[in-house]
């Protein structure tokens, strides 16, 4: 259960801009501490192949277990960290955690991909690719076990530079996926030039797939577009059987969402896998 931070220096009950500012400042200070005090957690959300139901990989999602405030909403503190320009330490923490987890899977012989989200700041930070290359060397991890998700809007912030960074990442042998696809207004010609392997259709189109005709048109044409460009198409936010069936009919490759599994600590994945095999 996600709790919004209350009490202490957060004071959200007071409302108003000044209080909001104070709350954000406190949260930022806390986030810095969260990293040094080891309060961040790596959660994994499985991604499955729609045709075969096979578990092919997971997305790495950060969680923050605050000692006083409990679990803090990820979208909120990630956005805050991005705005404050302090996402870099969080990204570094996440990369370490993801490589460590990937290594454990590789050692156990249950090799599957783990997808790490990179933020707009990471994409344009000069040291990122070297850091990632260093992690591959340190952990001795096979490059096809790590994916990166980059949001369409982050790529569009500086399309030229993004293209260069993606090309350098691609040289490491990793898989690249455009996240939240459909929300970032990238042009067709740009998409064609990007060295990516897949797209993830944003959940805002996937959730209303069977109830809204416009969503159906968007999802259908996105799948077609992706396939015409030779890309793997993943749907995020799959919450119902009906949406799953429709995606299968439309030829979507893979699915992620609460219907399949919520984000879980890695050690709970085997239990989920047993249940998934039975459904
Ligand atoms: P995202 O990369 O698009 O991740 C998908 C989000 O949708 C996750 O939220 C996930 O828990 C949620 N979700 C998945 N399936 C369903 C579903 O069926 N229904 C609904 N309602 N939601 C679903 P989360 O974990 O709160 O993360 C929010 C965003 O924060 C992520 O969006 C991602 O952009 C960012 N984020 C999370 N972890 C990291 C990280 O380590 N680094 C960076 N840079 N960003 C991160
Ligand atoms: Mg993502
Ligand atoms: Mg996404
Ligand atoms: Mg999304």
TrEMBL record:
Q: Which residues of the full protein are shown?
A: 342 to 620 of 620
Q: Which domain of life is it from?
A: Bacteria
The EAL domain, residue ranges: 24-277
The species is Noviherbaspirillum denitrificans
Instruction: Spell out the protein name for this chain.
Output: Phospholipase
């Amino acid at each position: 259960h996600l709790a919004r931070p209350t009490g202490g220096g957060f004071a959200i009950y007071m409302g108003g801009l000044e209080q909001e500012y104070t709350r954000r400042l406190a949260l930022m200070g806390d986030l810095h501490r969260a990293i040094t005090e080891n309060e961040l957690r790596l959660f994994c959300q499985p991604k499955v192949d729609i045709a075969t139901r096979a578990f092919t990989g997971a997305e790495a999602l950060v969680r923050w277990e605050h000692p006083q405030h409990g679990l803090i909403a990820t979208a909120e503190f990630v956005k805050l960290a991005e705005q404050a320009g302090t996402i870099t330490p969080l990204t570094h923490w996440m990369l370490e955690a993801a490589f460590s987890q990937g290594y454990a899977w590789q050692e156990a012989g249950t090799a599957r991909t783990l997808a790490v989200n990179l933020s707009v700041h990471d994409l344009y930070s000069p040291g990122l690719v070297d850091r990632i290359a260093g992690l591959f060397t340190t952990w001795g991890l096979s490059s096809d076990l790590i994916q990166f998700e980059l949001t369409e809007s982050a790529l569009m912030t500086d399309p030229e530079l993004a293209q260069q960074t993606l090309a350098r990442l691609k040289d490491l042998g990793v898989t690249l996926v455009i996240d939240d696809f459909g929300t970032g207004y990238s042009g067709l010609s740009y998409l064609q030039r990007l060295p990516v392997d897949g797209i993830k259709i944003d959940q805002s189109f996937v959730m209303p797939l069977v109830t809204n005709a416009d969503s159906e048109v968007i999802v259908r044409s996105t799948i077609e577009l992706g396939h015409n460009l030779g890309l793997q198409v993943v749907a995020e936010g799959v919450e119902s059987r009906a949406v799953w069936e429709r995606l299968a009919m439309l030829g979507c490759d893979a699915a992620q969402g609460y219907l399949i599994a919520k984000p879980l600590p890695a050690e709970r994945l085997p239990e989920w896998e047993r249940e998934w095999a039975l459904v």
